[in-house]
Amino acid sequence: MQPFAEGWRRLEAFLTSGIAGSEFTPLRLLTVLVLVTVLVWVTRRVTRWLIEHVLARRGFDIGMREGLGAIVRYVVISLGALVILQAAGIDLTSLNVLVGAIGVGLGFGLQNITSNFFSGLILLFERPIRIGDRVEISGCVGEVKEIAARATTLVTDENVAIIVPNSQFVSERVTNWSRPGTLTAYIVPFFVSHESDPERVQQVLLAAASQHRNVLQNPAPEVEFVEAGMGALRFHLQVWSTEHLKTSGTLKSDLNFEVWRQLAAAGVTISPVHRVLPAGVPLAQRSST
């Protein structure tokens, strides 16, 4: 019993003795760590309840809800941490030197992390991209699933998650296929032989487009006779749809099948020359490719 009491007195003395001669004891440090952990956990639960119940019932879209929830979480954690430190008896004015040293460290060693954090705040405030948007950046195409403090998560059509640093969305060129709306133009190129009648080809392309259930008639499909090249006559079929934002390949495949069938029935020969062009660029910008 005596060794146990002696060990307890030593532990008590250690926990209540000041660190480096200050009034801040290991017991206070442990208390601060526990309270901060509880603060983070409670804040996460409360903001999730705020996003899924309060803001959802008021009609906010998912991007706005996630953005407001993240801002509330950051503010509450920051203020709560200050209150916890003050309640623990820590003189915050004495931390000026430490804060200055941390600032220097952020400016050098943590420059990328700091840049990503503030870029995340810019994304939340300006909202150039939102949760659920389909975007393309650095050759990656996917749906925005999460905008966190450091990075944004995209999920591709193959159900693969891609983690993109927030700073890339601020400093690089980003294509947002969901803005300003889901109405999107899709362009499918076709090459036919020189013996083909251009007007007949135009009729076949428009007929094939009008028969697809997800191709809009307003705006109406368009056919452009791009050029009479050395190898073939090149046509572009442009259609509009609101249903194939995530499956543009399916729409193009359906059109290719139907156009091929109708051209064969009309006696038009498909040229072996075939080039696949990316969708989303106006016809006038593609005629030189």
TrEMBL record:
**What is the name of this protein?**
Potassium efflux system KefA
Pfam families per UniProt: MS_channel_1st, MS_channel_2nd, MS_channel_3rd
The text of the family note is: Belongs to the MscS (TC 1.A.23) family.
All copies of the Mechanosensitive ion channel MscS domain together span: 112-179
Keyword vocabulary terms for this entry: Cell membrane, Membrane, Transmembrane, Transmembrane helix
Q: Which domain of life is it from?
A: Bacteria
Q: Locate the Mechanosensitive ion channel MscS C-terminal domain: which residues? A: 190-269
Which organism is the protein's source?
Luteitalea pratensis
The GO terms this record gives for MF are:
mechanosensitive monoatomic ion channel activity
- One GO cellular component, as annotated: plasma membrane
Membrane-spanning intervals of the chain? 27-47, 68-89, 95-125
> What's the protein's topology in the membrane?
Multi-pass membrane protein
Q: Any signal peptide, and if so, which residues?
A: none
Which subcellular locations apply to this protein? Answer: Cell membrane
Ranges for the Mechanosensitive ion channel transmembrane helices 2/3 domain?
71-111
State the coiled-coil residue ranges: none
